[in-house]
Amino acid sequence: MTPTDTRALVAIDLGAESCRVSLLRWTANGPQSTLVHRFLNNAMETSEGLRWNLTQIEAGLDEGLKKCAEIATEGIRSIAVDGWAVDYARLDESGAAIGDPYCYRDVRNIASEGAVHEILPASQMRVLTAIGIMRINTLYQLYADKMAGLPQTRWLHLPEYILHRLGGRAVSEYTNATHTQLIDLHRGEWATGIFEKLDLDPEMASPIVPPGTIVGKLAGPLALVPAFRDTQLIAPCCHDTASAIAGIPDAAEDWAYISSGTWSLVGTLLHEPNNSQPARDENLTNFGGAGGRILFHKNVNGMWLLRNCLDAWREAGRDWTFEELLPLAEALGRPQYLINVDAPDLLLPGDMPARINRQLEENGRPTLSPYPEDAPGMTALILHSLAFRYAEVLDAIASITGKKLKKVYIVGGGSRNEVLNRLTAQATGLEVVRGAVESSTLGNFAVQMAALENSADAQSIAEWAATLRTAF
């Protein structure tokens, strides 16, 4: 497929560990994607809780956009932003952010989750929304704001906030909106009844729009740069996982996916939400996907476990790398016992080796040395436990949906972990297909092209994903 306009496209991918600005250009050899700018992003422990450094994020993105303009002398046709879900910026009357946004891992959500379910039981919430109950969801964060006495203000998830800051109108893109736990998934609208029961103002939420919506033109100082003089702003699948799955160009119905990074999102695509009792029992969630599809999946802990272990071992004096640890861990074989990777305390930041040992001890298992010398053993325990959990979730999904799964696509940064890929193939019995490492960026570009050239329906997005796959 060839575009009618060969100006470049920019994809911004906000990550909980790093943010990336990529450029798609059309060359004589076809489309070419380049990572133009990448910068680290970590939540900050402050006196007011765990926060994101929004000023740093904005500065990094501005730097990346300027670099794109220097490279793409042919001009830049559009910019789209995806990122992690649930976190948001609170806005003042002018549309500017009020302070730094909270991180979803902040402990304040523990109290707010309990308070919410005293008013609206979790079982009732699940029936209303078809969304799996997770305390990180936007609902619990908004209620935590209320419990802290903060005034209710307009709010935007971070990808939509960045688009708004660049000149776009304030919207809540559908795939991100589904992560709030405040949406009626069957109607695709805000569940105003939930807002009202919790005394949250639905007027503070922005209108829901589908992936591929053009939300305006770039404005402000960047718009004066020649390459940006006629640049559209597009809301792609603003949730990075939905964007990553949009980057899988497979029209068959026999596959599952694992979007592997800080989290592992394990699931499959459906045409309609599945809010059956078995789905609710397994806390499988229904999130919005590209082209009106549903991402039916479960959030499983991911590389978060190992990265926190690496930090602990580094502080203890040994700077292990993934490349060093993975072959050593694989050589040890399968441990005699596994851990529950989704235990609540393993989702919080901190001394991960100590937390894992505490779980082992509580279950009557021998502990591992928390010191760096035993890092290969703990790495093997984490990897085998993750693969086992993937298999559990995929078995449940196949049983509930009736799908005959034959293969599983692994996308995202974790797809480079060939040891975990092999363990996943062994545990699930499925063919493992490694997708694009930057699958979120691929899906972001595919939705942009579909919106600009055709319409952002499932078929057009899949066709553009197939066309652009060679660029990655």
TrEMBL record:
Domain Carbohydrate kinase FGGY N-terminal residues, every copy: 10-246
Keyword check for Kinase: yes
Magnesium in keyword set: no
Gene3D superfamilies with a match to the protein in the record: 3.30.420.40
Domain of life: Bacteria
UniProt GO BP: rhamnose catabolic process
Keywords in alphabetical order: ATP-binding, Kinase, Nucleotide-binding, Rhamnose metabolism, Transferase
GO molecular function, one term: ATP binding
Stretches assigned to the Carbohydrate kinase FGGY C-terminal domain: 256-451
Similarity section: Belongs to the FGGY kinase family.
Protein name: Rhamnulokinase
